[in-house]
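Hello, quick one for you while I still have it in my head. I'm working through a protein record and want to make sense of it properly. Would you mind checking whether the tokens look sensible for this chain? I owe you a coffee for this, so here goes:
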Amino acid sequence: MRVVFAGTPEPAVPSLRRLLASDDHEVVGVLTRPDAAAGRGRGVTRSPIGVVADEAGIEVATPRRLTDPDARAALDRFAPDCCAVVAYGALVPPDLLDLPRHGWINLHFSLLPAWRGAAPVQAAIAAGDEFTGASTFRIEAGLDTGPVFGALTERVRPDDTSGVLLDRLADAGAQLLLSTLDGIDRGELVAVPQPADGVSLAPKIEVADARVEWGLPAHVLDRRIRSRTPEPGAWTELGDLRLKIGPVTVVDAARDGTDVPDLAPGAIAASKKDVYVGTATSPVRLGSVQPPGKKPIPAADWARGARLDADAVFA
């Protein structure tokens, strides 16, 4: 089957590599987002998917929008039987949905209809879901509403960050996507409409949404921070400094046998080895702190260098 692959970030790479290695499908072209500024130097860089396609000698198209004429021209040139989509980052306009005879097949990192939208992995962790997964479905005009071909389930571990969980789902989902295309090509798979019940939404998490709310219960705050690690990165303020906060540990004095201070929400207490911050319930132990323009460092090292006042409070 002639396949156009549409994807952009690193989590899409396992799927593209799996398709490139397939004997049954030919990747005839790649759609990815335009080269963009990245890193501290803000140099223009190719997307991870663009890099893999270049290495494989596959033609790459980088339209700003799929409504642009050059996007249609590229698809006409590629003449795909199917378009496989993984974290592409742009909506497919209605007039392109029926262009490939097998449509556009999306690998989405949730168990649909749960967590439709741009940030399903982050939403699952923040909500405290015990399980999540990945689904393949045919794209239609609605947001992640199309009929489902297949799914896989993955347990959410207590220490999962969104980055770690997404890596697992990306690897497992690559095989799911390949199996879906295999089944479609052989005429063995029929997409099943999503149920009307159980719908939840996972909109994109903006930087403002990643501010740490120290007034939340410790277990909720822990999930929130892990869900925003590494992107966009949980952050808080100390005076006029904005600091990124790595995952935290919910402290249980009875369980840990630790002399845990009693702290108001946001209040900081540092020892030689640990830094505690108050929440609405029990304190949490900081894992890492990233000052502006620097790399993350262990919280205790940061506290020693910061020379905190006795009444220091995160806001």
